Amino acid sequence: MALVCLTDFEEYAKEHLSKATWDYYAAGADECCTRDDNLLAYKRIRLRPRILRDVSVSDTRTTVQGTEISFPVGIAPTAFHCLAWHEGEVATARATEAVNTCYITSTYSTCSVEEIVAAAPNGFRWFQLYVYRDRKLSEQIVQRVEALGYKALVLTVDVPYTGKRRNDIRNQFKLPPHLKVKNLDGEYTGSEEYGIPANTLDPSISWKDVYWLQSLTRLPIIIKGILTKEDAELAVEHGVQGIIVSNHGGRQLDGGPATIDVLSEIVETVQGRIEVYLDGGIRTGSDVLKALALGAKCVFIGRPAVWGLAYKGEEGVRDVLQILNDEFRLSMALSGCRNVAEINRNLIQFAKL
Predict the structure, then answer these.
(1) CB half-sphere exposure, 309, CA atoms < 13 A
(2) How many CB atoms lie within 10 A of CB 351?
(3) Is the pLDDT confidence value at 190 over 70?
């Protein structure tokens, strides 16, 4: 059977991955309300299509931080790709290079940043960073990725502590012995939590660490994990170059909002001073269209990329991206938009509750 939508890939991955691996990728925090609401929120939003607009030619290209990508969907940082496919992040990197979009490499990759760059030398990549208790370790990683040609740093700010993911605790999830968090290899020994060294993330992280990071690098800094207009304003005031509106796929605070539901207030606060992106709950091309209409410059997919890997590695990730691209192009045309510049708030009608 051909896989024709992202849900098909999800079902394939659920059938073919081990229970512990599936549970790890699928996990939300606590009762998974926020994880599930990320998806449900899109279904509450209706489009207002315009007709007779000559959509015989369409163009899905856009730019992020000044770099052109083929369509406004990138790969969000997710950990441990080798659990889903033996080549892991190397396959993800090749797929995103082939499609010409942005791949945010996770700190918790099971391939090293050097291996990823060697596999896809012309790929457009950002690097997702945590701030560690050992600041020297964060500093070394920043220097490594900058030297390797990564184009931005994505600072994840919503994990002072790891959320409570019940199935991971029940399964006593940890990385199998043959896999390593390659970017931290040899840096830590001792107890693990979720397959990564316990107590390495720094819960004292604060806005002053954004200044510290700026002092280390000339790369643009994107803050991932903002859900309020207050924090969006602070991000702008601290001189960062972008925001990813994100609730960590519903894996951190349960009971927080769906990302698409807070996008508008953040976009209105930022007022074009920096770029605003979004992740969480994107499953169709019309989801992408809705997010762009509400002001996102680009969206990022997490779990669907992993499902693509589980299906067929690089080819599977390419398939997932291609399906989203085709669906997005079709949704654009059926809404009367010929290019991304024509997508705006007038396309959105909020459903009457």
Answers:
(1) 29
(2) 8
(3) no
Annotated catalytic residues are 248
pLDDT value at 31 more than 80: yes
Please list the alpha-helical segments (H only) found in the chain: 6-16, 19-26, 33-43, 89-99, 113-119, 135-147, 166-170, 208-216, 229-237, 259-270, 285-293, 303-334
Assign 3-class secondary structure to 5-61.
Answer: CHHHHHHHHHHHCCHHHHHHHHCCCCCCHHHHHHHHHHHCEEECCCCCCCCCCCECC
d(CA 307, CA 6) in angstroms, rounded, equals: 8
Degrees (nearest 5) of the Cα angle 197, 25, 249?
Answer: 95
Write 39-43 long-range contacts (CB < 8 A, 24+): 39/281, 39/283, 40/258, 41/258, 41/259, 41/260, 41/261, 41/281, 42/260, 42/281, 42/282, 42/283, 42/284, 42/286, 42/287, 42/290
Say if CB 254 and CB 30 are below 8 A apart. Answer: yes
**Dihedral through CA 131, CA 136, CA 137, CA 141, nearest 10?**
90
**Sign, CA torsion 314/25/102/63:** positive
Whole-number pLDDT of residue 199:
72
Look at residue 185 and tell me whether its pLDDT is greater than 90: no
Can you give the pTM of this predicted structure?
0.97
Place of tokens 């002092």: 215
Number of residues assigned to the chain: 353
Residues near 12 by beta carbon (within 8 Å), at least 6 away in sequence: 3, 307, 310, 311
**339 to each of 35, 54, 336, how far by Cα in Å?**
31, 12, 9
- Cα 234 from Cα 111, distance rounded (Å): 34
Say if residues 124 and 94 touch (Cβ distance below 8 Å).
Answer: no
